[in-house]
Amino acid sequence: NVFVSLKTKNETSQIVARQTLQFSLLVPELAGTLRLGIIKGIESRWAEQLKSTTFINKKGVVEYQLKDTLLGKGYLSVKAVALTVTDGIILELEAVNTTEGLELFWAAGAASGKMTDAADAFLKPEWCKDNVFVMERNDLSLFYGESMKLKIYNYVFPVETESRLGDAHQQTTPLQFLNSGKKTNAPALVGKFPLIAGKKYYICAYRQNKEADFDYSLLPAVFSKAIAK
Known about the structure:
Structural class: mainly beta
Number of helices: 2
Largest sheet: 8 strands, antiparallel
Oligomer: single chain
Shape: globular
Strand content: over 45%
Helix content: under 10%
Low-confidence stretches: none
Order of helices and strands: EEEEEEEEEEEEEEHEEH
Distance between the termini: 28 Å
């Protein structure tokens, strides 16, 4: 349960980055968790199931290096940094010398809207109950909170991403989660996109404001600005 707390624009907010490739958004209430995994054909694994995961914090930039037989002789590099203009996080992912047919799995949800301790902020089924997802191609809006006081949190994924509703009770492997179906009282949005070796991919999770309204094409520049702060 190793994690780093990344500070965002607002003093009361933080992004919890875990060694298990889970990123929880405390803004300051829990606005959701992003969980990542690897798929290769009929096999899939979470970060904690891989052969090795290097996890270091360099001046507010959390870096991962993931190695496993699913990746071949290469590795997956993930860099995560908090945004400077709003409460959010941006990730840069790159598969280096990996095998073909690799995919990145993602799941977003568990926006309880409640104050939660950083050590306990995971993608838990009980926190998914009333979440509503609106996905337009590769842009996700997650609605949570009381019906008359709904809050929104936004995600942007690579344009190649495929998404669907999943059951947060079924998280044994990424593929189980991906194929779990939408008949559930604990909905999460799940998806995947291909990882082509040598190509950089970006995922951004953020609260929209006048300075932060991101299209995927903007994310490389957003990442560069955040990492240079």
